From TrEMBL:
Protein name: Zinc ribbon domain-containing protein
UniProt superkingdom: Bacteria
One Pfam family matching this protein: Zn_ribbon_8
Higher taxonomy: Bacteria, Bacillati, Actinomycetota, Actinomycetes, Mycobacteriales
Residue ranges of every copy of the Putative regulatory protein FmdB zinc ribbon domain listed in the record: 1-41
Region (Disordered): 58-96
Length: 96
């Protein structure tokens, strides 16, 4: 549901989430219950704190400003000391 801004004369600006079919020119303030008219504010494009917005922003940032490394990772390539497979038959397979 979309968020709408309302401005209470006593408490100030507050958000209310309601279906588009139910939003009116005013609503009751959740703090004091007074009549609060709807406020027109700038759209919150790109200010989302949701996970989807963070992922979208991070993806867009890597497209225009990819992280560049100047060398290999410290310690060289990582190799696990643990065998890839514990099945003894795999040791009999030909090796490159
Ligand atoms: Zn109020």
């Amino acid at each position: 549901m979309p968020l709408y801004d309302f401005r209470c004369a006593e408490c100030g600006l507050f958000d209310a989430s309601m279906p588009m079919s139910e939003v009116g020119p005013s609503t009751a303030c959740p703090s004091c219950g007074q009549h609060a008219p709807r406020a027109i504010t700038a759209p919150r494009l790109g200010r989302g704190a949701s996970t989807a917005m963070r992922v979208h922003d991070a993806t867009a940032r890597t497209a225009s400003d990819p992280g560049v490394v100047s060398g290999a990772l410290p310690g060289g390539p990582r190799r696990s000391s643990r065998p890839v497979s514990t099945d003894p038959r795999h040791r009999l397979l030909p090796r490159p």
